[in-house]
Amino acid sequence: MNDLKDINIEKSLELLKTKKISSKELVEFYLTEAESKKNLNAYISLNLDNAINLAKESDKRISSNKMRALEGIPIAVKDLFCTQNFLTTAASGMLQNFIPTYESTVTQKLWDAGAILIGKTNLDEFAMGSSNETSFFGSVINPLSINNKKYVPGGSSGGSAAAVAANIALAATGTDTGGSIRQPASYCGIVGLKPTYGRCSRWGIIAFASSLDQAGPMTKTVKDAAILLDIMAGYDNKDSTSANLDDINFSKSFDKIKKLKVGIPKQYKSDKLSPEIVKLWEDGIDYFKKKNCTVIDIDLPHTDYALATYYIISSAEASSNLARYDGVRYGKRQSSNDITTLYEQTRSQGFGNEVKRRIMIGTYVLSAGYYDAYYLKAQKVRSKIIDDFNQAFEKVDVIFTPTAPSDAFEQGTKIDDPIQMYLNDVFTVPASLAGLPAISVPIGLSQNGLPLGFQIIGKRFDENSVLAAGKIIEDCANFGEKK
Amino acid sequence: MDKNDNNWEPVIGLEIHAQIISNSKLFSGASTNFGSEPNTQVSLVDAAMPGMLPVINKVCVEQAIKTGLSLNAQINKRSVFDRKNYFYPDLPQGYQISQYTQPIVGKGSIEIDLKNGNSKKIGITRLHLEQDAGKSIHDLDPNKTYIDLNRSGVALMEIVSEPDIRSAEEAQEYVKKLRSILRYIQTCDGNMEEGSLRCDVNISVKKKNEDFGTRCEIKNVNSIKSIGQAIEHEFHRQVEIIESGDKVQQETRLFDEKKGETRPMRTKEEAHDYRYFPDPDLPPLEISTNLIGEIKKNLPELPDVKKKKLIDGYGLSSYESSILISDKNNVDFFEAVINENNQRKPKVVVNWIIGDLFSLLKKNNLDIKKSPVKPSDLGELIDLIENSTISGKLAKTVFDEMFYNRKKPKKIIKQKGLIQITDSGEIENVITKVLSQNVDKVNEYKSGKEKLYGYFIGQIMQETKGKANPKLVNEILKKKLAK
Could you say which of A129, A421, B244, B366 is the most buried, measured as most Cβ atoms within 10 Å of its Cβ? Predict the structure, then answer.
């Protein structure tokens, strides 16, 4: 009973089904753990009022054999998903008291499957950041921090990653725009899956960059990621970019895929890459070979331009998406008799520096006279990056790369240097720009003793191959033993 | 135009904003009822709540295609929605979704008829779909502005003409013609007072055979009369500026309806940079050849064609035809009466419709579609007059009864005993009686006081409660008095 800490969704479902534990016990355990680890600042709010009641209802369903796919499983939700009648902040002062009257499609699907909201996790403000240091509610601490120093959990889904890694959540949802699920997963030693753009509905998720945002699971195991994806995925007619495809049962089908052709992009092998990452990369290649996969060198020639392209496009979209936070209808308002002053004061006080920086970059690249040189050119490069992947996927099933160029860093070391901060996303943004599914799976520890994850990118809507490859790394690396 | 301005001619292009007839808004399911209580026709999308996404309303797309086809225009099978970014309190998203570089409808044209008997072709540059904004209400409170979002997100077609228009008259005829087409095909109700059809005027002046001058855009020109006034005023203003040696400044001006003049709103330097870019929430709009074909097939005959048929086929006057074609439902009503029984005389039918029916509809603020008198009822009444069952005079009373009590004419006539007396013996008896009661007057008549003829008719009609066949009364009375 006392190993509730290290269990995962798969195991919990088994224990619930066989009535070895109750949902109430499980939920109470995680709530208590979460309260005891408040210092991590992983949660913005906990569902103290309701979670236990919901767990009791789940227990009733279980005892009357009406168990649903995620019955009684507590899930932490990134505070970017709107939750009905429950504070939703996007970690911004702008929405510090915002309580939606509606529930995002993805979270609704989770609740409909029997999952229970345990709390809303911290993030970089409006999901803009790679270290979870831009949150209005303060930084999140990486639970694997060493030497009594505070390390970042990565971002923007830093709270979700930290909660799962600290065993104060069984699993969490995240969103990934340029790496916001994968990079924190790598920094915290958990599994993070960004599905194909269009796989999960964006309806009710506070928008950062509409052409890139995608929800996904952050879990302890690859199998758990598949279990959550089964529920989170699916067509939604309220999201025009949602893909209308037949449902796939990922958790039941992904491990049937064997003998993958694995591509290694030479452009990702920079000289600056640390020897420990190079070493782990080679280990990973060996794992694939050991499991009868073919490893092939591939070419993604436009990789160098991906980061700049990403920051132009995501900032352009963000500058427009965040225009609605004007103090007129909801959220923060700094009153004035003059509408322009109201806008200026509300927005300069409501938004943090990183958000303002992105709005300014985005406004600039869309301005008359600069549009062609920045936004339009970025869109053209984006097409080239997509072409690169299309060509590569003629030869391989998945692509294997590091998730981030380093392990987690100390708080405060990069926050004043946006370029250094943005470089964290160098390996994750190409798949984002191409809308491809990608997973980060922990593979080992750095010399510092911090986790390092590796990324597997797949073809559009081929999450199954991504999960299968992720499972190979998970099984061979045996990360759980190394922690 | 004035004699002093003889050498000058205006160059005019019009931008018409036409609200699409549709039950719900362009990108949300909210209703489009005009005149509802403020902020009652607003969905979460219209209020731009966080995480809300637009979904295109198919009906609005079909209405735009229908309109495009009626303007002899090219339908673009692929068009793109863009965001036009600017801050305004009644623009919740902080951007308007519009179509910038790739509109749904391309080049087309319409023919206008001028007073001098000539007709002229005016080119249409494009038609695109866009969202309407809400309304700011400044006059409810001295210190506050109120926002009504009922109109926010309502679908508009912006129809842009080529600068082919050369006079106020042409501009007015163009708007009238466009309005009648829109009404006829039921894509816009054309109601300028309610703002469902709004007009911006682009105008410059030049001497014949010279190049175009600098143009001004006049906003808020919202009646046919205002269009004429605004153009006249602006034309003189620009000519005066040039003749005094100055240059016209490119600017946006506002038409002041009360003063009948235009005044500056903003100069080119103050113009917004709208930072248009493709809306990442909406994939490009793809229209199939099938859909266009289907709409084309069901397109009603256009007003011009129909008008010609009414004149040539039914012998109606140009005036009568014009009234009928101002609304397709009028024509449908007219043709329904005729088609039910082709013995009915078109002139008689049209007079009933544009006379008695329209007058009662107007008095009761009803649309012809909601007329309590159906085409078959009017037809029945006309037949009853034709076969002398009822007199034309009594028919008016019957018609009122039909309108207010929704009864069939035959039933009313029977209940009220209004059937015409066509039995000459019976009429003769009445006449004999009346004349014998008025021996003095008969003598006066015979001695030359012929005015008394009317008196006798009146007495006879009173005696028969108006039911005597007037023709027979005349014949018999004349005979009797001649004796």
Answer: A129
